[in-house]
Amino acid sequence: MSSSEVYDAIVVGGGPGGSTAAWRLARAGARVSVVDRATFPRVKLCAGWVTPAVWRRLEIDPATYPLTLQPFASATVEHSGKVFETAWARPVSYGIVRREFDHHLLERARGAGATVVEGEGVRGLEREGALMRVETGARSMHARVVIGAGGHHCPVARALGGIQPTEPVVVTQESESRIGAARLASLTRRAGTPELFAEPDFRGYGWYFTKGDFLNVGIGCLGDGRDLHRRCAAMLDRLKEDGRLPADLEIEPFRGHAYTIRIESPRRIAGPGFLLVGDAAGLARPISGEGIGPAVESGAIAAEAVTRSVDGAGPAAAAEWYRAAIAERFGSGEPSWAERVFTLLPHAALELAGRTVCRHPYLRRRFLFEGAFGMG
Q: CB neighbours of 275 closer than 8 A, spacing ≥ 6?
């Protein structure tokens, strides 16, 4: 095993969480490699907005971001045919296109000195003495720590995270299409603003979001794919009826993906030689499923944990520090007493609570947009 094959950290997954961890480590002088089975830029469907707090964590001024950027200072939620709007005095978030955004962050990590391996998936992962060995189809690499940042299907999480086959997941279907800003502005008077649609039973929500030349439309719910297809078809029918998806508008085919919410299924997010970040750790926000913010933040925390390990704390101590830091920021993963009570309420009471939040200006702002989505 040559020295060129040994790293301080190998990051599996080049999305926002993985690229943030790699960038911070490389900037600090660590030897780090990023491995991703995709070749960037790659399609990554996501309603896609980034809050001011996340930009600060990324150390990027949105005014300098060179790609698609859609600042917004209002958002709407629709339920039972009524539209409720919340507005702020300044931009509370910024729409981005994940294909562009993820590539930009990965190239920044590469520019800081990270080795980036694209188009190679992880085929093997095991401990060899004090190091972890990562096998792809073309190479064998070793590192003190492996950071799993590969999303719901992350091979590190699958191998080491203790994921159970019965783990509940949120399933989504989305389409993102380049339409053109002028055409999109003619379809909705809220162009540039996230438009959310609460499902009648509040078991999910849909969205219609125009970002510059791009339209992202999708829906997500906790349940199986058959229920998702039914909900998606109903939402599309509504959008066609009100003119937001006219018959002559060609959009990209819908694609599905899934993610786990940690509060539903706690998993091992760290251990000697490995750390999980973002969706691989189940850190998406519980109600909204927003995952960019938690991915970036956990990636930054993972970089600090690896630095501690390299500086002599040891992999076990670094993993324990990481678990504590994630629990402090995102919770332990165990339901609180309030959440346990919430799950025991009859569904009629949950629907009443959902309607109340949608209709009440303060509750809508505080608990939906600012609380669930992190806006503001």
A: 145, 146, 147, 148, 269, 302, 305, 306, 319, 322
Secondary structure (H, E, C), 97-133: CHHHHHHHHHHHHHHCCCEEEECCCEEEEEEECCEEE
Per-residue pLDDT tens digits for 50-100: 999 999 999 999 999 999 999 999 999 999 899 999 999 999 999 999 999
**Using CA atoms, how far apart are residues 332 and 259, in angstroms rounded to an integer?**
18
Q: Which helix (H) or strand (E) holds 38?
A: none
Domains and CATH numbers, the chain: 3-48+97-166+261-330 (3.50.50.60)
Residue 159 has phi, psi (to 5 degrees) of -80, -35
- Separation of alpha carbons 243 and 251, rounded Å: 14
pLDDT digits (tens, 9 = 90+) for 278-333: 999 989 887 788 899 999 999 999 999 999 887 777 778 889 999 999 999 987 66
- Cα dihedral 109, 304, 59, 286, rounded to 10, equals 100
Tokens of 278: 């973002």
Q: Determine the average pLDDT of the residues in 224-237.
A: 87
Which residue bears the tokens 């030689």?
273
